[in-house]
Design brief:
Helix content: 40-55%
Oligomer: single chain
Number of strands: 3
Largest sheet: 3 strands, antiparallel
Strand order of the largest sheet: 1-2-3
Radius of gyration: 19 Å
Number of helices: 9
Strand content: 5-15%
Mean pLDDT: 86
Low-confidence stretches: none
Distance between the termini: 44 Å
Structural class: mainly alpha
Order of helices and strands: HHHEEEHHHHHH
Length: 175
């Protein structure tokens, strides 16, 4: 959230792209290929995924409204091309979110969010779908973001902390 807030100070459309990645689980290439013609009634149609499978993505209501507010008759939803300039925007946002003065070169100064890349938003989405959305591995596969349950299974660890909280239900010793 801090990265998206920082991105908002840089460029509102870039912040919208990051929100789309976070709340859709899409890959960056899928987001950059998205066209206004493929967004309707709170959904986005992804024509081509990494797996060559088209799919429909349900958008959060607030995200759908923000995309709709910027709607053009046709063309790309996000006016960016994949490359160094886009990566530099993310580096600037992560620096700002960490309280570090952003560098204007490819390498940024050390900071706590230096590890974040565009794919991090996809991983966060999957983790949130498990933790907050209650989706299991099959549910993640059903979203169309993964074809193979083994790929989606990497998010099975999310509920481990909740499982360990069950120890609080054990009988306690009287003191």
């Amino acid at each position: 959230m801090a990265i998206i807030e920082a991105a908002e100070t840089i460029d509102g459309e870039f912040a919208l792209l990051l929100r789309f990645l976070l709340y859709s689980g899409c890959r960056l290439g899928e987001a950059l290929a998205l066209r206004y013609e493929d967004t309707h009634d709170g959904t986005a149609f992804i024509r081509m995924s990494k797996n060559d499978d088209p799919r429909t993505v349900r958008l959060r209501a607030d995200l759908a409204l923000d995309i709709e507010a910027r709607r053009k008759p046709a063309g790309p939803v996000f006016p960016f091309r994949y490359g160094t300039a886009l990566k530099l925007r993310l580096k600037r946002a992560t620096c700002l979110a960490s309280g570090v003065t952003p560098a204007f070169q490819v390498t940024s100064p050390p900071h706590r969010l230096r590890w974040v890349n565009f794919h991090t938003f996809r991983h966060t989405w999957a983790t949130w779908m498990r933790r907050y959305g209650g989706a299991d591995v099959q549910g993640l596969v059903a979203t169309g973001n993964w074809r193979d349950p083994r790929s989606a299974a990497r998010y099975a660890h999310v509920h481990a902390h909740e499982e360990w909280e069950r120890t609080e239900r054990f009988p306690s010793m009287k003191r």
